């Protein structure tokens, strides 16, 4: 991996493999891309995005040595359609099934990305997974990983 964009694009490609429809039985989110920042969530066609949350340069060791380390935090957002009712809340079975899909996405991405990233770059740490939504008929998860480049 050479640059920050290349790293994000590689992570996105790995996410697509981890959510492979041939394995999960579900389609991939329709919109999948690398973003410079938090992506807009507008329509219920699903979204998988890798974006740059933060980037910092740190001094390593003795300040006279002049060595630095870049630490990038990538966020991975996965949004799926979430059941909404026209006049009443969908029944518990429908909501539970949607929650199961979201939980499976979280499991596949968090475990798979840990295995994928560990040998490729320094994993500084993971942020706690953040539940997204439900909002506007969509819900999902945000994963944040801090990487040393």
Write up what this structure looks like.
The chain is of the alpha+beta class and 149 residues long. The protein has one domain: STM4215-like. 30% of the residues lie in helices and 36% in strands. It contains three helices and six strands. The chain has helices at residues 4-18, 21-24, 92-117; strands at residues 31-35, 47-59, 68-81, 122-126, 130-135, 138-148. Strands 1, 2, 3, 4, 5 and 6 form a six-stranded mixed beta sheet that branches. A hairpin with an 8-residue loop joins strand 2 and strand 3. Helix 1 (4-18) packs across helix 3 (92-117). The longest helix has 26 residues, at 92-117. The radius of gyration is 17 Å and the shape is elongated. The model has no long low-confidence stretch (mean pLDDT 87).
Shape verdict: elongated
Total beta-strand segments: 6
**Approximate helicity band:** 25-40%
CATH top level? Alpha Beta
Strand count, sense and closure of the main sheet? 6 strands, mixed
Report how far the terminal alpha carbons are from each other: 9 Å
For this structure, the quaternary state is single chain
List keywords for this structure.
STM4215-like, 149 residues, alpha+beta, 3 helices
Summarize the structure.
The protein has 149 residues and is an alpha+beta fold. The chain is 30% helix and 36% strand.
How are the SSEs placed, and which strands pair?
Blueprint: H1 4-18, H2 21-24, E1 31-35, E2 47-59, E3 68-81, H3 92-117, E4 122-126, E5 130-135, E6 138-148
Parallel strand pairs: 1-2
Antiparallel strand pairs: 2-3, 3-6, 4-6, 5-6
């Amino acid at each position: 991996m050479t640059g920050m964009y290349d790293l994000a694009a590689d992570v996105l490609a790995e996410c697509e493999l981890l959510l492979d429809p041939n394995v999960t039985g579900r389609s991939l989110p329709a919109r999948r891309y690398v973003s410079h920042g938090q992506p807009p969530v507008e329509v219920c066609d699903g979204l998988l995005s890798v974006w740059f949350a933060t980037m910092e340069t740190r001094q390593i060791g003795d300040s006279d040595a002049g060595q630095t380390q870049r630490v990038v935090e990538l966020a991975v957002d996965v949004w799926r359609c979430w059941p909404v009712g026209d006049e009443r809340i969908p029944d518990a079975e429908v909501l539970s099934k949607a929650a199961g899909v979201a939980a499976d996405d979280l499991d596949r991405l968090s475990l798979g990305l840990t295995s994928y990233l560990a040998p490729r770059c320094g994993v500084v740490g993971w942020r706690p997974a953040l539940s997204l939504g439900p909002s506007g008929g969509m819900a999902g998860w945000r994963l944040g990983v801090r990487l040393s480049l």
